Amino acid sequence: MTKLIYEFSEGNMSMRDLLGGKGANLAEMTNLGLPVPHGFTLTTVACHDYQQTQTLSQALLTELDQALARLSQITGKQFNGTEHPLLVSVRSGAAISMPGMMDTILNIGLNDQTVMALANLTHNERFAYDSYRRLLAMFGNVVYGIEEDTFDRVLTEVKQAHGYQSDLELTAADLKQIVTDFKAIYQQAGKGEFPQSPKEQLLAAVNAVFESWNNHRAQVYRQQNHIPESLGTAVNVQEMVFGNAGDQSGTGVAFTRNPATGEKKVFGEYLLNAQGEDVVAGIRTPQSIEILHDDMPVIYDQLMGIAEKLETHYKDMQDLEFTIENGELFLLQARDGKRTPYAAVKIAVDLVGGGLITKEQAVQRVSPESVSAMLHPEFDANAIAQQTPLTTGLPASPGAATGQAYFTAEDAKKAADSGVKVILIRQDTSPEDIDGMIVSQAIVTSRGGMTSHAAVVARGMGATGVVGAHEINVDYAAKVARVGEQKIHEGDWVSVDGTSGELYLGKIETTPAGVKGELSVLLDWAKAIAQMGVYTNADTPQDFQKALDFGADGIGLTRTEHMFFKPERLIQMRRLILATDAAGRAEPLEQLLKMQQEDFYQLYKLAGDKEVTIRLLDPPLHEFLPHDEEEIQAVSQQIHLAPEKLRERTNSLKELNPMLGHRGDRLAVTFPDIYQMQVKAIMSAVIRLHGEGLEVHPHIMIPLTDSKSEMAWVRQLVTDQIKVMTADTDLQLTYTVGTMMEMPRACVTADQVAEESDFFSFGTNDLTQLTFGYSRDDVGSFMPEYIKQGILPADPFQTIDTEGVGALMAIAINKGRQTKPDLPIGVCGEVGGDPASINFFNQIGITYVSCSPYRVPVARLAAAQATLNQKS
Ligand code: PEP
Ligand code: MG
């Protein structure tokens, strides 16, 4: 027969699935010799039985009688006892903590007889009736579903009638009257008499706790936290101890370290003469644990000793619940304490220093995402609690920003130049908006998904970003954004939370952050553990410097097109594209060459001995061209080309599907001189640095390749250019030419493509776009619904789709390494900074990931965890 009830002394920590987290912990603490009130646990198996039959089985009832008899024997107290009445608490406890989601009933066993026995025993009538009225209210609420409010109203009326400020002022006589009134509530609610039999109370309470597994809030909590429905809850029945037995009694919570800062000092709160619920429910404002030191020094010392013992035993910061009953300390609960990201990092590092855990364990203790929260400014928690968001979009780039709203890049730039903190709000963004984006604290768009232009650029720059907030409607002409009836005018203050995706009206204070102190220690350990390298996607020395500060190994992707959108370069680019012959292209190319040389020189100089991978031009050419008539007129004057000619040329370059069109290495085939110019710029920067004593080995990356022959063609173009440049020097320059893997065809023919490639780097943005057939710039309109409906487990542009895109990657890796066993293979799409994706990449043999600067520490920690996961 399956055993359905375990005494605390029969269990231990490893029995979590059977006894629930709380039950297993109580058992463990009992066996550690800590002062835990006696009790027993009804297992999750008993809960499953109940869920199937909706009744408590005979086998369970028999074991319950035996367990109660044992409890009476150990405690010397009995149900219905007129001298020593046994009172118990009945609490839920699933294997995974679901705080406050299920029900608890305290003081089971009190009735009209035992309340007097308790009063006699404790010489405290007030305490006895106070306990009784608590039972009546909890039992009525949990078992019969009577609103808590109904009981609270009676309490408030009595307090008001006597002019009391707090519950403590209620006298025994008041409480007796309250008990009578509470019983009347049962009658009024049609529930009959409050059951006087303690056994009947207990069974009803156990039933109710099993039932509460399926209450609405518990179900929602499980869904949100991905807790399986099948888990079930255990029920803990435990001898009551009373923190409200007088002024030698009290109750409180204590953390073995400060949960906000991680400081190694017990942090806690307690209340004299109170029950635990008063502290948890915030009914009375508790005092600092330091006060306990003055009130009861012996108990305080004992508690500090227990805190230390528990932390050493569990090897982590603990959160304790304790009760003092007439000068005797009892421990009701201990569990790993919840903590802020800052505290999580500090505690993990300090525990290694204290010899309690290893560096590997410390690295596994901190969630990578929580590191992200440490790097960006955050809204002050108190300030944000007072606010209601105006609207919500996708959380594209974490951080918090407050500033004034502007709707065009030009206006944003002007405002920023005059010292205004700018928030750029647009329907969407394009490369032309870059100037305005660079100066913005946050970027908000109403269209677009997590890899839309706005999202990628915001993350790259470390600016806060919210995209796809489709309730926003920007009226550029009127310089106003509307959300329903509400309006944001140009210059209005708004605040953006890129971690939650929320947009607020008005100013909200922020606090800054960075990699320092314990975080930098933890990241060093992570670096030593991780198999995969962590590089950054950076296009400017500023971004690169940020990434280096965050510990990047180098650059995995420089998107050179981002270098062409500064106004003085855009003109040259336009002259280049619009020229009709090679002669017309020569001059703008020369201009661009100079600028690119300097760009690459700066990046390589900053990199020192770190590696830098530069990708040649990728986007469709028409992105560089004017779009409307007004722009055509302006550009026509700038580049001295008649408007008709300009219109004609622009039209001829227009494409219906530009993302599938004339972009990437297809540009090299039609405009070889652009790639030649870029290669020349890279190599002349390299030669210049050699002259300065810095040996640089550049990596040149070709975007969008889909076949070996295409790669061979472009590679030839690149190497020919390099040969020309080094022909009359005796420099022995080493360089590599690799390809992005972002076309499904390239993945399935990767063995051939590898013959022409020195490395691969997965462009998972395009690869996902092409594998699903989802336009990466438009998914915002349907992706949230796909996730809500459970059609997709997650946005595949944020977390790699292992079954589809991931499978293609695995094919490409296997085939690529059939040709070249040591082929370095990176990932430089957005998922390169996503912890779950990084874990997968480690499994399929990726050499390195590359992500935006602010994701570097997150990726580093995730990479280390991925290595440790694979080992275990
Ligand atoms: C990609 O496609 O994943 C990639 C990194 O390139 P881009 O986002 O610039 O197209
Ligand atoms: Mg791409």
How are the SSEs placed, and which strands pair?
Layout: E1 5-7, H1 16-31, E2 39-42, H2 44-53, H3 58-75, E3 88-94, E4 104-108, H4 114-122, H5 125-144, H6 148-162, H7 172-188, H8 198-212, H9 216-224, E5 233-239, E6 250-255, E7 267-272, H10 276-280, E8 287-288, H11 289-295, H12 297-314, E9 318-325, E10 328-336, H13 341-353, H14 359-365, H15 368-375, E11 378-379, H16 381-385, E12 391-392, E13 394-397, E14 400-406, H17 409-417, E15 422-426, H18 434-438, E16 440-445, H19 453-461, E17 464-467, E18 472-475, E19 480-483, E20 486-489, E21 493-497, E22 502-505, E23 510-511, H20 517-529, E24 533-537, H21 541-549, E25 554-559, H22 567-578, H23 582-607, E26 611-615, H24 629-639, H25 643-653, H26 665-670, H27 672-691, E27 699-702, H28 708-726, E28 736-741, H29 744-748, H30 750-755, E29 760-762, H31 764-772, H32 783-788, H33 805-819, E30 825-827, H34 835-844, E31 848-851, H35 856-871
Parallel strand pairs: 14-15, 15-16, 16-17, 24-25, 24-31, 25-26, 26-27, 27-28, 28-29, 29-30, 30-31
Antiparallel strand pairs: 1-2, 2-5, 3-4, 3-5, 6-7, 6-9, 7-8, 9-10, 11-23, 12-22, 13-17, 14-21, 18-19, 19-20, 21-22
Helix pairs in contact: 4-5, 5-7, 6-7, 11-12, 13-14, 13-20, 14-20, 15-35, 20-35, 22-23, 23-27, 27-28, 34-35
Bound molecules: phosphoenolpyruvate and magnesium ion.
Residues 557, 559, 618, 742, 763-766, 828-829 line the site of phosphoenolpyruvate.
